[in-house]
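Final report, Chapter 2: Outcomes

The project's central promise was a pipeline that accepts a single protein chain and returns its three-dimensional structure in a standardized token representation, suitable for archiving and comparison. That pipeline is now operational. To close this chapter, we reproduce one record exactly as it appears in the project archive, with the input sequence first and the structure output second.
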Amino acid sequence: MLVSTLDPAPSPRVGIVVTDSYPLEDLDHDTGPLVEALRARGVDAQATVWHDEDVDWADYALLVLRSPWDYPERVEEFTAWLARVGAATTVLNEPALVAWNLDKRYLAQLEQLGVAVVPTTYRTTVDEVARDLSAFPDAAHVVLKPSVSAGARDTGLFRAGDPGALELAARVVTGGGVVMVQPEVPELSAGREKALYLIDGELTHAIAKGALLAPGGGLLGGTYEEHPERVAVTPDEAAFAHRVLAAVDQATGLGAPLYARIDVVDSAEHGLVLLEAELFEPALNLHVAPEVTDVVAAAIARRLASAPARVG
């Protein structure tokens, strides 16, 4: 009887994609518990910094985008990296979905597919923004933000007649961005937004983040700081979240994403509306819903098992 002396094949590796530093008010609470849960399932998982030039990304059978939260300051670098690693291995959520989701003008596409959203215009000049603002009473509140952003960067809540609104618009446009102009949703300003999480298309939990924007521009307390609290989900909200994912699939043809955060608010004026479908790098808030950690790990393990083998 012959006994093989060959070493066993190495376990496929999973990289949980992060960055190298986080502000104290916006820490990554997910990656540590998730890596631990994956390892408990026998998965060779580790955190990987997306801009680490020493990493050979082809060594990973699967990369899961989690918290590369410095990408807004280096969008071109990030999108080039995403294209490069997407050619080398399997990335989730899919690079094509991330590219579609990076620019919030996807909201207009979802609206065309029947998803209710906050009324929004998308402007590329300050003059266009000024015309939009002139349609509001001076005392009315409006929200301005860039279509590519994260963590409420360059997002402001202003009275329509506040010169600060046009100053923000000019900053976004000068940087080559597109300005989104929206009426204030009072329920959103009061902190009634809900973030609904779906893992492999199944609703797992929801949180409320609290109010973030200070009137007159800027953030409450001067920094971006969420205060996540677990909240219940109504049947209407659950159904709405699933409709959003169905519309995303209709728009992209990419099926159910590994993970999704569907931000909604129930507005007296507009009804239940989508604020954002975050399909790229949402904090999962696993420290608020720790039992969901293993649900995410199980979903990653299933995707790993079905990931195509790479040759060469």
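Archive annotation: Residues 235-252 form the longest helix (18 residues).
This record, like all others produced under the grant, will remain available to the consortium after the project formally closes.
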